[in-house]
Design goal:
By secondary structure, the protein is of the alpha+beta class. It has helices spanning 45-67, 106-119, 121-126; strands spanning 9-12, 18-21, 27-29, 76-84, 92-100, 132-136. It has 3 helices and 6 strands. Strands 1-2-3 form a 3-stranded antiparallel sheet, with no helix packed on it. The chain has a 3-stranded mixed sheet with strand order 4-5-6, with helices on one face.
């Protein structure tokens, strides 16, 4: 395997703390969301996961669309991330990827979305670990 990129982040204080990237450029204060009894005045890991997954999947759409010679430059991907507490305890995530492909035939759009799901690093990391729903909107 050829490593293409490496990064790291350091966090202190958990969900009411702070995280920073080693190379600089981004540091965030974290806070529990109001729905979990927090102030909501900060980011949370689920939000960052949604940002990363939506950007990564959007890039995969661009790659696969290019392979199909379909213009997908106006593609939009919304990643909805749920934090759940299963009956058995602990916590889990679920993701719904909502994809808009303006001007693309729905059958071709679904083919591109499925192809993107096969190559996206986030999709590969989550496959068979958490539920991920693909929705063409």
């Amino acid at each position: 395997m050829k490593q293409l990129y490496n990064t790291s982040a350091t966090s202190e204080g958990g969900r009411n703390g702070r995280s920073t990237l080693a190379e600089g450029g981004l540091g965030l204060a974290f806070a529990f969301p109001k729905s979990l009894g927090g102030t909501g005045r900060g980011s949370n890991p689920e939000q960052l996961f949604a940002l990363g997954y939506s950007a990564c999947f959007n890039q995969a759409i661009l790659v696969v669309g290019g392979q199909h010679k379909v213009d997908v430059q106006r593609a939009e991907v919304t990643a909805e991330v749920d934090l759940n507490q299963p009956d058995g305890g602990g916590f889990s995530l679920a993701v719904n990827l909502k994809v808009k492909l303006p001007g693309v035939d729905p059958d071709k759009a679904r083919e591109i979305i499925e192809g993107a799901h096969k190559i996206c690093p986030y999709s590969n990391a989550t496959r068979n670990n958490i539920p991920v729903t693909l929705t063409l909107v």
